[in-house]
Design goal:
single chain, alpha/beta, TIM Barrel, 8-stranded parallel β-barrel, globular, binds ligand PBG, binds zinc ion
């Protein structure tokens, strides 16, 4: 493969030839748009650390979801901010909770878009942890029942896919069994299988008001230096019935995405381009330090190139607009 017979620049000469030999593509088909839903009417609270992202009341959420659907985005994922929190996270599995109401309203108004619901307790617990707390510890097995209850209540409201993000062991099996028992055999599970205890979630915790009130999440979310353990987590989730698995965050974990993609060919792989990743690009753009659109697109293609089929990203609607032009 030596010069001068080989000249790789031949295939970079113009956009037509580059387009033809391009190895990875970004399509609107790959994108999931997250939304934060809050009680009330006509509410649109900006999130200071996430420019362009808002806490929306259901009446303000619906037109946004309609727009996402018109742009060709296949799915949205909903996060809820309840009006009150308690130690057992009742708002997560309340039949009339914020997510249950929002899911019904979206399925009613925009039946053509998939609704994914996040299954976790941290937005609903007064202590801000993802499970039940006893003597400062987050209990695993006792939490499973509440997660399963949450998923079933979301399925009842019309969720197409439930997405457990809590990192309790055994939650996919518990949720699958509960869904099946209630007849929701066609509700899929997208598991946050490989979720690290990351500092890149900071802005999300402002948006969802879900920061832990004591300690941190390192006793249940994964330790950032580990990748063999990621393979184990993904294998367990697939065995327990996950239809789609996820790696989260994306950018500092592109090697993990690649390893998971190469190890498991039997399920679609999603990656979560998390809040901190979004905010860093927004901030640099606001300072005029980077070319916003180009950096955004280059970032998302890197996640696809690493091996993710699906990307959850706060950029989804903006990117869909760019891809349309
Ligand atoms: C809830 C949850 C979190 C995110 C998604 N679901 C936060 C956390 O685990 O603390 C993070 C998403 C983001 O940062 O964009 N368990
Ligand atoms: Zn949580």
């Amino acid at each position: 493969m030596a010069f001068p017979v080989h000249r790789p620049r031949r295939l970079r000469k113009n956009e037509n030839i580059r387009r033809m030999v391009r190895e990875t593509r970004l399509s609107v088909d790959d994108l999931i748009q997250p939304f934060f839903v809050i009680h009330g009417k006509d509410v649109k609270n900006p999130i200071e650390s996430m420019p362009g992202v808002y806490q929306l009341s259901i009446d303000r959420l619906i037109p946004e979801v309609k727009r996402a659907c018109e742009l060709g985005i296949p799915a949205v994922i909903l996060f809820g901010i309840p009006d009150k929190k308690d130690p057992i996270g009742s708002g997560a599995y309340d039949e009339n909770g914020i997510i249950q109401q929002a899911t019904k309203a979206v399925k009613d108004a925009v039946p053509d878009i998939l609704v994914i619901t996040d299954v976790c307790l941290c937005e609903y617990t007064s202590h801000g942890h993802c499970g039940l707390v006893k003597d400062g510890d987050v209990l695993n097995d006792a939490t499973l029942e509440l997660l399963a209850k949450t998923a079933v209540s979301q399925a009842k409201a019309g969720a197409d896919i439930v997405a457990p993000s809590d990192m309790m062991d055994g939650r996919v099996a518990a949720i699958r069994a509960a869904l099946d028992e209630e007849g929701f055999v066609d509700v899929a599970i997208m598991s946050y299988s490989v979720k690290y205890a990351s500092s890149y979630y900071g802005p999300f915790r402002d948006a969802a008001d879900s920061a832990p009130k004591f300690g941190d999440r390192r006793a249940y979310q994964m330790d950032p230096p580990n990748v063999r353990e990621a393979v184990k987590e993904a294998a367990m989730d697939i065995e327990e019935g996950a239809d789609i698995i996820m790696v989260k965050p994306a950018l500092a974990y592109l090697d993990v995405i690649k390893t998971i993609r190469e190890t498991f060919s039997e399920v679609p792989l999603a990656a979560y381009n998390v809040s901190g990743e979004y905010s860093m690009i927004k901030a640099a753009a606001q300072l005029g330090w980077i070319d916003y659109e180009k950096v955004m697109l280059e970032t998302l293609i890197s996640i696809r190139r690493a091996g993710a089929d699906i990307i959850l990203t706060y950029f989804a609607m903006e990117v869909a607009e760019i891809l349309q032009r």
